Amino acid sequence: MDYEKQAVIREREDSLDTGSDSFLQDNTAVETNDAILAKKIHLINNAIDEMGFTWYHAKLFCIAGFGYSVDCQMEMIQSAVRTYVGYQMGVNGFPIANEIFSAGMICGCVFFGFGCDIIGRKIVFNSSILLTSIFGFFAGGMSSYATYCIFMFLSAFASGGNTAIDVSVFMEFVPSKYQYLNTMLALFWGVGQTISALISWAFIPNFSCEGPENCPSHLNRGWRYCWYVNSAICFLAALIRIFVMKLDETPKFLVATDRDADAIRVLEKIAVKYNRPLSLTLEDLESCGTINKDFFDSNKDGYSIRALMSAVKVNLRLLFQSRVMIRSTLLVFLSWGFIGISYSTFYYFLYVFIAARGGDTGSSPYYVYRNATIANFVGIFGPILAGLLIMTRFNVFNREFCLKRKGTMIFGALASMAILFGYTTVRTPNADAGFGAATYFFVNIYYGTLYAYTPEVFPTKARGTGVGFSMLICRIFGAFAPVINYFGGKTGTSVPIWVCGGLIGCLSILTALMPFEPSLQRSV
Questions:
Q1: Could you give the residue ranges of the DSSP H alpha helices within 141-281?
Q2: Distance between CA 404 and CA 258 in Å, rounded?
Q3: Residue 174 phi/psi, 5° resolution?
Q4: Between 20 and 30 A from 80 (CA), which of 74, 239, 376, 394?
Q5: Ramachandran quadrant class, 306 (left: phi over 0; alpha: psi -120 to 50; beta: rest)
Q6: Per the UniProt record, which residue ranges are transmembrane (predicted)?
Q7: Does 283 reside within a domain?
Q8: pTM, 2 dp
Q9: What's the domain range around 429?
Q10: Is residue 35 part of a domain?
């Protein structure tokens, strides 16, 4: 049966007219359930390629990047203020706030990630950052630990939904020639991390208690200022998304939900505004036929929890619809699990390990936030290099080759493993700054490429569900990091660090086994 499906896929690819302007074939292997939808998305891809890159795409690149930035700002602000919140509210010991934050991110990935395949990309894209900022303001104003955790959870919930949609929205609009920009979007991680580090550096050292002994609110305003300023930045980004960019629903989602006329209107709007050619017509889409109606049958209950669960079941079948998709989906999910636990464990545990070995990376807040700012700023350039590696052709011994996405991920994983192992030799603040910058740089090469690769290898109807599950797995695995930090810190063992490096190295093997190379194909 598998050979029969492969033959059908090859026949479909041969039958699709790529047109003279198309330099890539569509990744039709992920749409084996619906040949009609694959053909319609092929026409949408041709139309987007025909229009080319416009200011619309440039603006979309920036506002989608806001989502990456907000995700990192939220996580780092929460981590930076946790100790000082505990000082004021009499909480110490196991890092409960970290686990509650992770739970919020997990729930957000599930709810918004799965939901965007029902209600659309636009609603989630516009509402997630706005909700993040509103709940963030409330979190900064709380006077009890319980209410603080509630609003922190809600803010993380909205932020988690945002991470599941940003890259998908940009990917479904961008011309295939510029798909490498999907990877470069991750540069906004470094931007967000740098912003949060600067905010923390400005307020924590100057407006915080030195310990829990005497820590009333009026002497410990730094953590509140961090929440307020960070939330204000997120609120501004949300307003830009809603009132300046005014995003339209993605044409690929529209054709996947049998709304061909709406898809044409979105494309015509861009073509007219930027004076670009558009030869695709509604008749062209309708002549392809009618798409598979299983999705709509699962959505007969409207927008409800029952409809969500029904749609998730249908979408999961799409993610595992053939042997090649089973292999691809499992490897992607496993990669997200490995990077989730290894990156988070490194982030939480490394300084405990260094201190246990007699090192001093700078115990004062000044050195802590200085080094964090330097490292996160350097991390901005990792995804930029990743995007360049994907598109650059190298000549070695008179033979040309290109790393493409898989090669770039392998390079990022192996380089990160080497740097992480070397990090265990750090004993001084300057060495910490240097190795920290190198770690963020190389990890972001892998992380940014994986983030872009993930939605590219999922079918259109189930893209939000696939990305949502990936984020869910990443967050679940990452939630174990504080546990490792708590118990590993008591023993002073070096095992977690070496396991971390080993897992990151294993990511290169998982990448090599992945069946799809989106650099050679257009996303569907």
A1: 145-163, 166-171, 181-184, 187-203, 222-239, 251-256, 260-273
A2: 33
A3: -75, 140
A4: 239
A5: alpha
A6: 96-116, 123-139, 145-165, 186-207, 227-244, 330-354, 374-396, 408-425, 437-454, 466-489, 495-516
A7: no
A8: 0.81
A9: 55-249+319-522
A10: no
| Window from 299-308, 369-378, 510-519 with minimum mean pLDDT | 299-308
**Secondary structure of the chain: what % helix, strand, coil (to 5)?**
75, 0, 20
**What's the mean per-residue pLDDT of the chain?**
81
CA distance 47 to 43: 6
Q: 210 in a domain, yes or no?
A: yes
- What tens digit of pLDDT does each residue of 339-361 get? 988 877 776 665 555 555 555 55
- Do 241 and 126 meet the contact criterion of CB atoms below 8 Å apart? yes
Backbone angles phi, psi at 480, to 5 degrees: -80, -15
Contact between residue 198 and residue 373 where contact means Cβ atoms under 8 Å apart? yes
Q: How far apart are CA 478 and CA 472, in angstroms?
A: 10
C-alpha 383: how far from its chain's center? 12
Rounded CA separation 193/69 (Å): 7
pLDDT tens for 356-370 read: 555 555 556 667 777
Burial class for 384, CB neighbours closer than 10 Å (0-12, 13-18, 19+): middle
Coil, strand or helix at 163: helix
CB 206 within 8 A of CB 90: no
For the record, the structure tokens of 196 come out as: 């949060």
Domain count, the chain: 1
Q: 320-328 long-range contacts, Cβ below 8 Å, gap at least 24?
A: 321/32, 321/33, 321/459, 322/2, 322/5, 322/29, 322/32, 323/2, 324/6, 324/29, 324/515, 325/29, 325/30, 325/32, 327/513, 327/514, 327/515, 328/30, 328/457, 328/514, 328/515, 328/516
Mode of pairing for the β-strands spanning 399-402 and 393-396: antiparallel
- DSSP string computed for 307-363: HHHHHHHHHHHHHTSSHHHHHHHHHHHHHHHHHHHHHHHHHHHHHHHHHHTT--S--
Position 293 in a domain:
no
Could you tell me the CATH number of the domain that includes residue 352?
1.20.1250.20
What's the CA gap between 484 and 347, in Å, rounded? Answer: 11
Q: Please state, in angstroms and as integers, the Cα–Cα distance from residue 393 to each residue in 210, 401, 410, following that order.
A: 54, 6, 17
Distance CA 309, CA 476 (A): 20
Q: Can you tell me whether residue 468 is helix, strand or coil?
A: helix
Q: What is the pLDDT of residue 18?
A: 38
